[in-house]
From TrEMBL:
Keywords: Hydrolase, Metal-binding, Zinc. This is Uncharacterized protein. Coiled coil: none annotated. The keyword Hydrolase applies. The lineage of its organism: Bacteria, Bacillati, Actinomycetota, Actinomycetes, Micromonosporales.
C-alpha cells in the first residue's frame, strides 16, 4: 500500500503535502487523534499488521478504547470467519469498527475498466501481460491495451507454465513447461532462490529447533506438551527446559484472548522460542513450530 502511494507520488498522480506522511517512530509519539494508520489485513490475515493489532501482538501499535478502525474492503468468499474474528477482537479492545455491514465504506479491490485504461494511458507500456483474474478478465484487459495504443502482437495472454521471452523489448510467448517442477541452474533466482539460500545458511550456522504442542480446538488451551527437540544446536536434552513454560504461558494468554487459529498459535510459539534462544544463546536457529488441534 505504501509502495503504491510512493509510485503514484513519483508519477505526479498523488500530491501529498509536506509533513503529512510521517514514519512509525514519529507516529507513535504523536497524540492518537492526529494519526491515521494505513494497514494491511482487511481480509483477516492472521499475520498482517491489522491482525496482529487485533490480537495485541503488534510490536508498536496498541488498539485502545476510542480508536476507530475502518475496513474499506469487501469480503472475499471463504474469508468471512477470519474477517469477523478480527472485527470481534478489535471490538473487544474497545475500538469502533466501521465495515461494509454498518456503513458504505466499501471500495473494490479490483480496478474497473476505466481505471485500468487510465493507468495504461499514463504508463504507456511497450508490452502488456494481463495476469489477474479469469480468462474473460484477461481478454477484457487485453482489449483495453489495444484501445490504449499497444500493438496486438505485444500483448501476451498466458497461463501457468507458459514461457514468455522479452527480447529487444518485445514480449513473446515462446513455449510451455509441462512439468510442475522447474530446475534452476544457478545460485539464486529472485526472492525464491535468495530465501532458500538464507534458510540453508541459518540451518548450517544456527541449527534446527522443532517445537510441538497440542491444543484444544475450541478453547485454544494447551492439552499436551510443549515438546522441544533440536538438531545441530545442543546435545544437552535439558537445554530447552526453561522455554517450555514460556510457550505454555504465551499460548494460555492467547487462549484467554480468544486466539484459536493454528497459524497464529504457531507464530506465537515461533516468537517465544526465537526470543528466548536469542537472549540465552545469541543464535538464530531455524525454528519450526507445530500446533496440533484435538
Amino acid at each position: 500500500m505504501v509502495r503504491n502511494m510512493g509510485i503514484a507520488r513519483d508519477l505526479g498522480l498523488l500530491r501529498i503535502p509536506g509533513g503529512l506522511v510521517v514514519g512509525l517512530d514519529e507516529a507513535t509519539s504523536l497524540p492518537p487523534d492526529r494519526i491515521v494508520l494505513m494497514s494491511t489485513g482487511s481480509q483477516g490475515e492472521p499475520m498482517s499488521a491489522l491482525g496482529r493489532m487485533a490480537t495485541g501482538d503488534h510490536r508498536h501499535i496498541t488498539v485502545a478504547p476510542g480508536d476507530t478502525v475502518v475496513l474499506a474492503s469487501s469480503l472475499v468468499p471463504g474469508n468471512e470467519t477470519s474477517v469477523y474474528r478480527v472485527i470481534n477482537q478489535l471490538s473487544r479492545a474497545g475500538a469502533t469498527v466501521i465495515h461494509k455491514d454498518v456503513a458504505k465504506v466499501h471500495v473494490s479491490g479490483h480496478s474497473p475498466a476505466g481505471e485500468l485504461l487510465y493507468l495504461l494511458n499514463v504508463v504507456r507500456p511497450s508490452n502488456l501481460m494481463p495476469v489477474h483474474g479469469e480468462w474473460r478478465h484477461l481478454r477484457a484487459h487485453a482489449r483495453l491495451g489495444i484501445e490504449s495504443g499497444i500493438a496486438a502482437d505485444r500483448i501476451v495472454l498466458c497461463e501457468d507454465g507458459d514461457v514468455v521471452d522479452l527480447v529487444d523489448g518485445h514480449a513473446r510467448l515462446v513455449g510451455h513447461v509441462k512439468s510442475r517442477y522447474v530446475y534452476v541452474d544457478g545460485l539464486a533466482v529472485g526472492d525464491v532462490g535468495e530465501s532458500l539460500l538464507t534458510e540453508r545458511r541459518i540451518l548450517g550456522d544456527g541449527g534446527f529447533i522443532a517445537a510441538t504442542v497440542v491444543v484444544d480446538s475450541v478453547t485454544g488451551k494447551v492439552v499436551g506438551g510443549p515438546t522441544v527437540s533440536t538438531k545441530g544446536f545442543s546435545e544437552d536434552p535439558a537445554a530447552f527446559n526453561a522455554v517450555v513454560p514460556l510457550i505454555t504461558e504465551a499460548l494460555d494468554r492467547a487462549a484467554l484472548e480468544g486466539v484459536t487459529d493454528p497459524h497464529q498459535l504457531q507464530q506465537i510459539v515461533r516468537r517465544v522460542v526465537g526470543r528466548w534462544v536469542n537472549e540465552a544463546y545469541r543464535r538464530r536457529p531455524m525454528i519450526v513450530p507445530t500446533v496440533v488441534e484435538v
